[in-house]
Design goal:
Number of strands: 2
Shape: globular
CATH architecture of the largest domain: 3-Layer(aba) Sandwich
Radius of gyration: 16 Å
Strand content: 5-15%
Number of helices: 7
């Protein structure tokens, strides 16, 4: 599927990483205004380069690559200051019916589970009252 879609992919890791630390790093990035740069890096690190996004050193490397401070990253990963918020978001997603990843919640009311083709998202967005997608993105 990756090749058919023209997406980079690496061989799967022997173990599925625990993404909790990556989520905490993402919250730091959101707070510092670099989430849009970090988010695709984390996906590429795992899916495209086969890196363990549960590993602290990997997260430090990915975070500093977008301008985050290494010492602050270590502090965030160890003190878990964002953990309550992440767990609250997880509970809310489960309450909406999310039971796996990937999953998308559109307008906090419509759930799109699993990897879906572009057409599914176009229909869901139109159903939610959003302008039709043109298929170019």
């Amino acid at each position: 599927m990756f090749e058919a879609a023209g997406l980079p992919h690496a061989e799967p890791l022997e173990k599925v990483p625990n993404s909790r630390k990556a989520l905490m790093l993402a919250e730091l990035a959101r707070e510092r205004g670099v989430f849009d740069e970090l988010h695709p890096r984390l996906f590429d690190a795992y899916w495209g380069r086969g890196r363990d996004i549960g590993d602290e050193q990997v997260l430090i490397e990915e975070g500093t690559a977008v301008g985050l401070d290494a010492a602050e990253i270590v502090d965030v990963l160890r003190d878990q200051r964002y953990l309550d918020g992440i767990e609250g978001q997880t509970r809310a997603a489960i309450g909406l019916g999310v039971n796996g990843v990937p999953a998308w919640v559109i307008d906090q009311r419509l759930l799109v589970p699993g990897a879906q083709p572009h057409e599914v998202f176009a229909r869901v967005l139109e159903q939610a009252g959003h302008a039709a997608l043109d298929g170019s993105s």
